[in-house]
Amino acid sequence: MATAGKVIKCKAAVAWEPNKPLVIEEIEVDPPQANEVRIKIVATGVCHSDLYQLFENMHKDGFPTVLGHEAAGIVESVGPGVTEFQPGDKVIPLFLAQCEQCRFCKSPKTNQCERAWDNNRSGAMAPLESRFTCKGKKIQQFVGTSTFSEYTVVNQMAVAKIDPASPLDKVFLLGCGICTGYGAAVNTAKVEPGSTCAVFGLGAVGLAAVMGCSAAGAKRIIAVDINPEKFEKAKVFGATDCVNPKDHDKPISKVLAEMTNGGVDFSLECVGNVEVMRSALESCVEGWGVSVIVGWTDLHDFAARPVQLIAGRTWKGSFFGGFKGKVGVPGMVKAYMDKKVKLDEFITHEMTLDQINDAIELMKTGKWWIYTLIFSSITRLSSISQGMPC
Q1: Which among 150, 203, 208, 257 has the fewest CB atoms less than 10 Å away?
Q2: Which sign, positive or negative, has the C-alpha torsion 273, 277, 282, 285?
Q3: Does residue 122 sit in the same domain as residue 192?
Q4: The domain containing residue 215 runs over which residues?
Q5: Torsions phi, psi of 70, nearest 5?
């Protein structure tokens, strides 16, 4: 492409400081260096994790930054040493890299990667190096992706090549939320046919978890949220029952235990709230119940009574749904193309990048569950809320 090897000036939404509106700026994006890929972002999503960094974590070393980590795009150019990708490839950037060489990447037991940990500083949630500059100041790349920009530069180990026939304005959803929820049910919980499940929080992650439970053959899927407007959408993805904790004068765990003769076989917490995490655990049946923490937070400790685990329950966590990105994401794209996974149903609204702060505000209110924005006639930005605390 004509821009290969040159600095690209483009539009991006910059978070100059925490707890402040994003600012649409013209930034400079350097050419990719060794083992890097520069990507033209075609569609990107706003996930709760972006809001977590902006409004909850607010780490002093994490700003200024360009947020965004759920996207799809087209390779514009590649740096020295890149052989896996070439200009024109359709790709999805990965906030969880896969070097394919470390002991974690080589293990079938996890989707973690040692080099991925090295590349993202704890707290700041960004690597030390960045290819972004604005007004003469270095701008950080959130979790190494920063997709709230028309162009971004990503290490090749954090890029998944996808089917060239796939619609980027749909499959971008697989960059985070859908894989996270769906995989938590299928890969981490390993939901079994004929089982009973409960999903706490009906944002996109929770809805995807409902879809995963359904795909795994669960016979009963109880959707839990304090916003009843989400219940009809949950049924589209496979929920058989919907429960609003506010409708009951007893703990939701006791409500579910009464509904299921002692508790569910599997529960998934898709909120990122430590109190809900405990409720999800306590909703599981003694003896074999499995509860999975899916919602992201690192601000508070969580707690449970030892007997709740001694009695036979299992409490575990899931990151990006247990998917190894370079393999799992293309596989999910194929599943969508084969009509085995829903994506279109997650998209309900459209806006421009200039309205990104409006989208963030809508997400904060919790009055909706899924949101889509458009950069231009071919570029979309989708924001996906997690369920509100139950």
Answers
A1: 257
A2: positive
A3: no
A4: 182-318
A5: -125, 105
Q: Is 167 found in the same domain as 19?
A: yes
DSSP string of 346-357?
A: G-----BGGGHH
Q: For residue 231, tell me if it sits in a domain.
A: yes
Asked whether residue 87 falls in the same domain as residue 228, the answer is: no
In a shared domain, residues 225 and 153: no
Residues 159 and 13 in one domain: yes
Instruction: Per residue of the chain (390 residues), give pLDDT as tens.
Output: 689 889 999 999 999 998 899 999 999 999 999 999 999 999 888 887 888 788 887 777 889 999 999 999 999 999 999 999 999 999 999 999 999 999 999 999 999 998 886 666 566 788 778 999 999 999 999 999 999 999 999 999 999 999 999 999 999 999 999 999 999 999 999 999 999 999 999 988 999 999 999 999 999 999 999 999 899 999 999 999 999 999 999 999 999 999 999 999 999 999 989 999 999 999 999 999 999 999 988 878 888 989 889 999 999 999 999 999 999 999 999 999 999 999 999 887 777 788 888 888 877 776 544 445 545 433 444 444 444 333
